[in-house]
């Protein structure tokens, strides 16, 4: 028996009709048709003609069974059969909910009697019938074409175990030593171009640095960090903690360029670099995701960083990040 499954054809159903009429056992039907017995069982169960008013005509007829099977395969998808559900999904996508969040909330609230999963929503977004709606723009990655499921490559070789955050010294985690930074990348709407911002925060002083980048390519991003931090004394730029984004894959350049070690959060654990995540929230108040960076210069970002660094923080005893950073910097010098 072939391991490659194929739908039953009309010729198969004609043979099956005669076998059913002769009341041949299902195991024998499967043997003669070269199919699994479950395939034959499902075929008879699904595609048998039944009419309550004419029970004498109930049975498995080849042409009728073939039409029933084709009609089932032609049925519209759930989100086209149920317009109300379709509208709800589109509204939530436009609010930048992920398909998983939408499916989970619909199930949790019991809003719809029709159950859908995140895969149903992804197929709706990327299906030929509805692709013209451009709903992919609301997804986190805004991909025009869907990446095959399971195609994401593991990044263990890019970010080795020796650089995991679990290997980072405790004195970095408890903020007892000056000169250790966290970094992240602020991304903007794809239609506005590839420009982005590297945000970096010194863990002890909460001092923020912002760097404008023309693209997400790793080496130019690393070069900009090296250029920005090279004037500082070495004890003020000892290490950087990043997430596992590919934009930080060129981290070894930091060690070669300014002697700074790099550490990486665990997958899907941005809270492990909470200082820069909190800084990003402050930055987004002034540079939201729909900002066109074509009109934002590095000088503008430097002024914004200065504004943020001149605000007193409760965690610093209501001193400003600038005051704490400069005090530590003078001590190091």
Overview of this structure, please?
This protein is α/β, with parallel strands linked by helices and 333 residues long. The protein folds into 3 domains: 10-74, no CATH class; 78-138, no CATH class; 161-332, Nucleotidyltransferase, domain 5 (2-Layer Sandwich), CATH 3.30.420.10. It is built from 14 helices and 5 strands. The protein has helices spanning 10-21, 26-33, 37-47, 62-74, 78-81, 83-94, 99-109, 118-126, 170-173, 218-229, 252-258, 274-286, 298-309, 321-332, and strands at residues 180-186, 196-202, 208-213, 239-242, 261-264. The protein has a 5-stranded mixed beta sheet with strand order 3-2-1-4-5, sandwiched between helices. The chain is elongated.
CATH class of the largest domain: Alpha Beta
Number of strands: 5
For this structure, what is the CATH homologous superfamily of the largest domain?
Ribonuclease H-like superfamily/Ribonuclease H
Q: Write the CATH fold name of the largest domain.
A: Nucleotidyltransferase, domain 5
User: Hey, roughly how much beta strand do the residues contain?
Assistant: 5-15%
Q: Roughly what percent helix? A: 40-55%
Number of helices: 14
Task: Report the end-to-end length measured between terminal Cα atoms.
Answer: 78 Å
Q: In terms of per-residue confidence, which ranges show pLDDT below 50 for 5 or more consecutive residues? A: none
Domain Integrase catalytic: 165-329
GO biological process, one term: DNA recombination
Keywords: DNA recombination
GO cellular component, one term: cytosol
